[in-house]
C-alpha cells in the first residue's frame, strides 16, 4: 500500500505527468444549440454561462473574463469574445496514445511510435479547438448584446447613408436652383437686349424717316427757290438731323434773298468742314504709313535676324523681337511691318530665309577670289529666269555648295556673277520697301 502511495506521489510530482493525469478527468464536452434557447433568448445567460465556466478549467491563462449580463459594457463583451476566440488550452491528449514508447524494442520503433502518437494528439487537439470554436460562435450568434450592437451600428450606418443622400439631394437642388436662376437671368438679359435692340431699331428707323423728310423739305426749298441742285444734294449727303433742324430754324420766316444767303453760307461752311476732316484723315493716314514703313536698313536686318531667331511657336515672341530690335518700334508696328513684307513677298518665311540667304551670300563673297567686276545689270531675261529657278531649286541649307550649283544652272555666268546679281536684286527690293 505504501509502495503504491509512493509511486503515485512520484508520478504526480512530475508536472508533465500531472497534466496527463488531470486531462483524463471525466468532463462534459457538450455544447448548447439553438434548441436549448427560448424564443426571446431570456435564458441565454443561464444556458451559456455554466458551459464557459466549465471549460475555463482548461485555459492556460488564469485571467478569464466572465460572460456577464445584459447590462455589461460593450468593451467587456469584446474582451470576453476576444479571449474565447483565441482560447489556449493546456489539456494534454497523451493519455489517448495508441502505443507506449517504453515498449519499443529499438530506436527506430520508438521514433515511429512517437510520430504515430503525435499525429493522434494533434488530431484530438484540433477537434478540441473546433469544439471550443463552435461554442463561442454559437454564443456570439445568439448573444442579445451582440445583436443590439449590430442593430445600433446598422442604424448608425443607415443614418450616415441617409445623411449622404440628403446632402447629395440638397446639393443637387442647390445646383438646379443656381442653374434655373442663371437661366432665368440669361433669359431676362436676352429679353432686355431684344427690347433694347428693338427700341434702337425703331429709333434709327424713326431718325431715318425724320432725316428723309428734312431732305425732301430741303429739296423742295431748292426747287421752289431755284437753288443749285448740286449744293442741295451735297448738303443732304452730309447733314445730320440736328444740323437740318438748325438750318430750318435759321430759314424760318426769311425771304427768298435771305434763304439763298443762308443756303450758300451753310453749303460753304459744310464744304469747308468736310475738306478739313479729309485733310486730317489723310494726315493721320500718312503719319501711320510713315510709322509703319519708315524702317532703316539696319532695322530691317535686325527684324530679319529676330524673325529667324524667334520662330512662331516661341512664347512672348513679339516682345522678344521688340527687345532684340530696340528703338521706339512698338509691337503693333513690328507686326504690321512683318504682315506687309509677308504680303508683298508672298511667303510667310521670307524674312528668315532672306536673312539666311543674305548671310550665306556674304560668306561666299568673302571667300571668292577678287577679280574684275562684271556689269550687274548686263543680264538677259533668259539668264534672270534661270537664276530665279536655280535659287528655288537649291536652298540655302546647302551652304557654299549652293552657289556652285546655281552657277552651273545659269549658262555663261560664274559663281561670283550670280552672287553679285542676287545681292543687287535684294538691295533693290529692300530700298523699294523702305
Write the layout of secondary structure elements.
Layout: H1 2-13, H2 15-22, H3 44-55, H4 74-85, H5 107-142, H6 144-224, H7 229-238, H8 241-251, H9 256-293, H10 297-309, H11 317-325, H12 331-345, H13 350-367, H14 381-393, H15 401-409, H16 415-433
Helix pairs in contact: 6-7, 7-9, 10-11, 10-13, 13-16, 14-15, 15-16
List keywords for this structure.
16 helices; mainly alpha
Task: Describe the protein.
It is built from 16 helices and no strands. With 434 residues, the protein is mostly helical. The radius of gyration is 57 Å and the shape is elongated.
List the helices and strands in order.
HHHHHHHHHHHHHHHH
- Please summarize the sheet with the most strands: none
Radius of gyration: 57 Å
Task: Name the structural class.
Answer: mainly alpha
Uncertain regions spanning at least 5 consecutive residues: 346-359, 361-374
Determine the mean pLDDT: 82
Summary of the model, kept short:
With 434 residues, the chain is mainly α.
Amino acid at each position: 500500500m505504501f509502495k503504491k502511495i509512493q509511486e503515485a506521489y512520484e508520478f504526480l510530482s512530475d508536472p508533465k505527468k500531472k497534466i496527463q493525469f488531470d486531462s483524463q478527468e471525466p468532463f462534459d464536452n457538450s455544447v448548447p444549440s439553438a434548441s436549448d434557447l427560448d424564443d426571446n433568448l431570456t435564458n441565454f445567460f443561464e444556458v451559456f454561462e455554466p458551459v464557459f465556466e466549465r471549460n475555463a478549467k482548461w485555459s492556460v491563462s488564469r485571467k478569464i473574463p466572465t460572460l456577464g449580463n445584459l447590462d455589461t459594457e460593450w468593451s467587456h463583451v469584446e474582451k470576453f469574445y476576444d479571449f474565447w476566440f483565441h482560447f489556449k488550452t493546456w489539456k494534454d491528449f497523451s493519455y489517448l496514445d495508441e502505443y507506449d514508447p517504453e515498449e519499443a524494442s529499438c530506436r527506430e520503433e520508438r521514433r515511429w511510435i512517437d510520430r504515430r502518437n503525435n499525429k493522434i494528439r494533434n488530431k484530438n487537439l484540433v477537434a478540441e479547438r473546433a469544439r471550443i470554436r463552435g461554442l463561442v460562435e454559437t454564443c456570439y450568434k445568439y448573444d442579445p448584446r451582440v445583436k443590439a450592437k449590430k442593430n445600433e451600428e446598422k442604424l448608425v450606418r443607415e443614418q450616415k447613408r441617409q445623411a449622404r443622400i440628403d446632402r447629395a439631394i440638397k446639393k443637387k437642388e442647390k445646383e438646379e436652383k443656381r442653374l434655373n436662376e442663371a437661366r432665368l437671368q440669361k433669359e431676362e438679359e436676352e429679353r432686355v437686349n431684344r427690347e433694347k435692340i428693338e427700341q434702337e431699331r425703331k429709333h434709327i428707323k424713326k431718325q431715318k424717316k425724320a432725316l428723309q423728310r428734312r431732305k425732301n423739305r430741303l429739296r423742295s426749298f431748292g426747287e421752289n427757290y431755284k437753288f443749285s441742285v448740286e449744293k442741295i444734294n451735297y448738303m443732304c449727303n452730309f447733314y445730320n438731323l440736328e444740323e437740318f433742324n438748325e438750318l430750318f430754324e435759321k430759314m424760318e420766316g426769311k425771304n427768298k434773298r435771305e434763304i439763298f444767303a443762308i443756303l450758300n453760307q451753310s453749303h460753304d461752311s459744310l464744304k469747308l468742314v468736310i475738306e478739313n476732316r479729309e485733310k486730317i484723315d489723310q494726315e493721320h493716314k500718312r503719319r501711320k504709313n510713315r510709322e509703319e514703313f519708315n524702317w532703316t536698313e539696319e532695322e530691317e536686318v535686325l527684324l530679319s535676324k529676330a524673325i529667324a531667331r524667334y520662330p512662331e511657336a516661341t512664347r512672348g515672341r513679339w516682345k522678344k523681337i521688340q527687345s532684340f530690335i530696340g528703338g521706339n518700334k512698338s509691337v503693333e508696328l513690328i507686326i504690321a511691318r512683318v504682315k506687309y513684307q509677308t504680303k508683298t513677298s508672298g511667303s510667310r518665311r521670307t524674312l528668315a530665309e532672306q536673312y539666311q540667304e543674305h548671310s550665306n551670300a556674304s560668306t561666299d563673297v568673302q571667300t571668292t577670289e577678287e577679280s574684275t567686276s562684271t556689269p550687274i545689270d548686263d543680264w538677259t531675261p533668259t539668264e534672270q529666269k534661270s537664276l530665279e529657278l536655280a535659287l528655288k531649286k537649291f536652298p540655302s541649307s546647302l551652304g557654299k555648295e549652293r552657289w556652285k550649283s546655281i552657277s552651273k544652272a545659269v549658262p555663261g555666268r560664274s559663281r561670283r556673277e550670280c552672287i553679285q546679281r542676287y545681292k543687287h536684286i535684294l538691295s533693290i527690293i529692300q530700298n523699294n520697301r523702305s
